[in-house]
Amino acid sequence: MMLLLAAALPIALATQGEMFITRDNNGVTNYLLIKALGRKNLFGEAEWSAKRGTAMRWQWETEQVGFTSSPNLKIQVLGKFKKKNLCLYWRGNYAQPFSVKKCAEVSNALKFGCHTVGVDVYFGKKANADAGDVSKMQQSIYAEWTEMNYSNLSDAGKLNTATVAGAVCWHPTMQSPDVPTYEEEYNAANFKLASGKGFTLMTDKDGPVRWFGVRQSNKDKDANGNAGGDVWAWSATQRSNVAPDVDGATKAAVLQWKGDYIQVIGPSHARTDGKPLCLKLDRSKAKISKMPLRVQKCDNTIEDGKFGCHLSDDGLTYFGMKWNAKKLAAAESSSCPHEGAGGVVDIATLNAIQLNEYATCFWTRQSKIDEQKARMRTQFYSMVPGVTVPNYTNGPCFTKYL
Is 2.30.30 the CATH classification of the domain at 4-180? Predict the structure, then answer.
């Protein structure tokens, strides 16, 4: 079985830290899908699917003395099972050779390996691979993953990516737990879309200038290298140009509006279970000097994931949930009885009843305006990816309608 590349990659400097187990079923690619047994995803059942399967990775374990890591030859199931510490289990050389067991169990059937005969790579239980007993292994089982090239941008301004199909044992997580190399290789300047729609999000609200960023955990010194499930997960952070974090602008996440959603397009490998990440409002940080944003998988069910802006009458651009922006715009554009053009009121011409009508409407309207403003943020700006000097010209929604 030969390595297949969907596109040429001169230099692959970072690799998505997930893989999909596949098989060749008479020329048709099937994906290994783990279905949940029970509501809490405590157990799973393996089956082959013609659609995208469940993400997996080779598991590493960490020694507490010196925190050195080594592969334990188990394949951990990610996706909705990533916090359950479940691994593949080799049932035998059957049409469905896998089942799912807890990674903590002690069994040779939880450890996998490959054995090469000529150009063919057989996959199965590690003990059979070591013995070269290919009669108990399968040659049609591969892995599929994504590689990206940081040094060669496509015409569209995006990093080149390629889908790679190879032996399961060739996946980079078998070689090292520290993939992808986000901190070393990533530079936001590499994600300047030709359309100009890519941007970084900068603010100086309640603190120094800082950019929105994403980070991926790559260590778990408390227990197994990634058994806890939160390892390799992506989370939001903030990056500044103030020591010790002196490269905030270049390490900032590059974003792009997708309708009312904001998707992370840089780094390319910032994905969860094979799906891209989108921003979500973090209400717990809306009033303190933190970045009030989180990330989660992009889909149409994201709560607090539809964003919008409104240029208020006070000259400030308010950024937050789309419905809050819409309500703020409606409140500011509403009129009260006895108002003339531009909201001007000649108080001297109003009688007591008219004055009461106007005052009641005015304060009700102002209350609605204040309520919506309190739920949104100011002093957020969109920046050209990689630009380090703060620019306060364009609001967060500047590229939304380009």
Answer: no
